[in-house]
Amino acid sequence: xxxxxxxxxxxxxxxxxxxxxxxxxxxxxxxxxxxxxxxxxxxxxxxxxxxxxxxxxxxxxxxxxxxxxxxxxxxxxxxxxxxxxxxxxxxxxxxxxxxxxxxxxxxxxxxxxxxxxxxxxxxxxxxxxxxxxxxxxxxxxxxxxxxxxxxxxxxxxxxxxxxxxxxxxxxxxxxxxxxxxxxxxxxxxxxxxxxxxxxxxxxxxxxxxxxxxxxxxxxxxxxxxxxxxxxxxxxxxxxxxxxxxxxxxxxxxxxxxxxxxxxxxxxxxxxxxxxxxxx
Length: 279
Prior knowledge:
Blueprint (H helix, E strand, L loop, with lengths): L2 E8 L5 E8 L6 E5 L10 H10 L3 E5 L17 H20 L4 E6 L17 E5 L14 H19 L1 E2 L1 H4 L5 E2 H11 L24 E7 L7 H5 L9 E7 L23 H5 L2
Parallel strand pairs: 3-4, 3-5, 5-6, 6-9, 9-10
Antiparallel strand pairs: 1-2, 2-4, 7-8
Helix pairs in contact: 3-5
């Protein structure tokens, strides 16, 4: 039986994040799951429950500030830096304390795999399982997506963020609206071939690129147009001290179903979960 315990995480700047522990009897590794941009923790619940049952992992799920159960009063104002450095950092600190001397692993989806070099507990991490994660650059998307990408970055995104103060979730397809501050920073990062490097030492702390020296499991989906496999492979450049291993998810392994950028976490694609975890 999986024990579920609600908790609250507090970041260095005082933000409070809603979180949930899933604990099996006699747990093995401790795992934190960092979400994709504006993705709610509930989206990952089926996968987290599978990890708890099949990998005997004690799993921490949480919502970024201004997302899911961590929504704050007033207009959402979170930035990508807030989510990447502050929220992910706080969410890693709690499992690092809980793990003690035991194994500590991170599962990061998209944005969730791009922040470990900013986190104080990075040297404690045994494995980073980075799913559909990599330094996105708008010129690296498939050509068939060029009109859609251009419309998002230069028409619909800027217009809605100016008018509404956010990009609505019905446009992004995410679980929460993307605040104006997060959209502007995200757009800037995706205009650079090295993604968030443009903000190192400014809006982001200076990273410790050698802090994480464990296994970097790069999990890419063959039909992901947002982070194609070639972009996912470039994630290794951000973790030069790690040992990279690539796992490619195929539609055939998913029973012929589309995987895309987030389908691998849906219960209907649960056949992919052993290949994602890979341990």
